[in-house]
Amino acid sequence: MYVAIDDTDSPGGMCTTFLMTEIIGRIGLDLIGLPQLVRLNPNIPYKTRGNAALCARFGRGTGQSRRIGTIEGKAVLAWSDASESGSTEELAGLVSEIVGEMYERHENTNPGIVVSERRFPGWFYQEALKREMRKEEALSIIREIGASFREFGNGRGLIGASAAMSWHPGRRTFELLAYNHYGNTPDNDEKMKIAKWADSVPGTFSSVDSRHNKALIFPSPRTPVYMGIRSTLEESLINIIEPIGAREETACERYMIYETNQATDDHIQADPEILENLMSCSLIAEISSVPEAVQGGHWFCNAIWNGKTIKAAAFEPSGELRESFRNLATGDMVRFFGSYNSAVLNIEKMEIITLSKEFIRSGGRCRICGGSIESAGKSGVRCRSCGEVREYYSYSERKRNLLPGWYEVPASSRRHLAMPVDLMGIMEQ
Predict the structure, then answer these.
(1) Three-class SS state of 412
(2) Contact between 332 and 352 (Cβ < 8 Å)
(3) 201, 222 Cβ separation under 8 angstroms
(4) Looking at residues 42-66, what average pLDDT do you find?
(5) Averaged over 256-274, what is the pLDDT?
(6) Which pTM value belongs to this model?
(7) pLDDT for position 257
């Protein structure tokens, strides 16, 4: 049976992934395969702090097993197959007791729980990444499948839980999360040392933002998550569970590896026919106005896409991307990746396909004596030294402070779902 939960945290605390570890440790069933951490539409205004829902399969484990975590000293195994047992209603009731005991009470926290004998169809996940879904749509598919559900508050978490239940991994990555409730936080030097060690493990990504001296594996101390190490390789994370545990034994009480949709660009719709509010997309456009700055360090320009003028923006947190964006010029052909909100495309990364050529008019030097050139009105140009007259100015191509290729925001500003440029070849294989 599959269990999916969402919306259990608040801006002040808790983490839905931690709550899933409680479910794994307390319901008395085996974990079948990896638990899944599913990031949702990054543009939804009421998204949770981490914007993630969780889904896991449970049963009586059969076949092969592998260690994927530790909960308070006890190894957590993931089994390759299961003999199912129990009913969805009984399991929903048990999960509801755990969630009800532990979720963060807040006016905007509205947990949802879905328990089903089978996965939901993939279209619901795809729609949940494109637009703002209604709770009624989630309830419709829950009832169609015959799943059980529980809700707290207004039950908005049923949307995310249903989206996680309908994720059928294509592109995927993995994350090892370590948890503590002890409040132990290393200083920045120690964080960087640990993050650089994690960055050296094959397959890991987004562990360090060296340019800004940030250790990205350490999240906000408001949550029970101590660190998170991301990788394209599950086996790399399995192999570092014990080394991490030995290194951080005074800080962490549990570890878990999740299968995730992070860094997959699943939220990106390639070449949409129309732009809709809250969607994320990629599109090819021609720059039609020189980028201009506004107060706050944000840059905007106009571009022609699909015969229409759209506004694109590189906001202040986009760092190095903003510096490249500001050097765009009219006529440049660019593929933008970003989120469309309030009639502005907020750029996450971009590929400069071709650069337009810009020419600077200059008089040049006299071809006879080498003297300087000045305007001669309608006659053309004249040498100031010898008086030689010719009919035209010289033009030289201005060197652009930009090259064709890929540009992206700093790792510390990157959204969970956005695929880093250096993973694009790997993830597309």
Answers:
(1) helix
(2) yes
(3) no
(4) 89
(5) 96
(6) 0.89
(7) 97
Under the banding of pLDDT at 50, 70 and 90, the label for residue 428 is: low
Parts of the chain belonging to CATH 2.40.50.1010: 268-356+400-427
Does the domain at 2-260 match CATH 3.30.830.10? Answer given as: no
Neighbours of 276 (CB within 10 A): 12
E-state strands within 239-393: 254-260, 268-270, 279-287, 292-294, 298-305, 308-314, 333-341, 344-354, 359-362, 373-375, 381-383, 389-390
373-375 β-sheet, strand order: 373-375, 381-383, 389-390
Confidence band (pLDDT; 50, 70, 90) for 397?
Answer: confident
- Angle, helix 88-102 to helix 16-26, in steps of 10 degrees: 130
- Where does the chain hold its CATH 3.30.70.2200 domain(s)? 2-260
Q: Which of 172, 151, 169, 161 is nearest to 128 (CA)?
A: 161
Q: Give dist(CA 17, CA 3) in Å, integer.
A: 13
pLDDT at 355 over 80: yes
Looking at 3.40.50.1240, 3.10.620.30, 3.40.50.2300, 2.40.50.1010, the CATH number of the domain 268-356+400-427 comes to 2.40.50.1010
Lowest-confidence pick of 194-198, 288-292, 362-366: 362-366
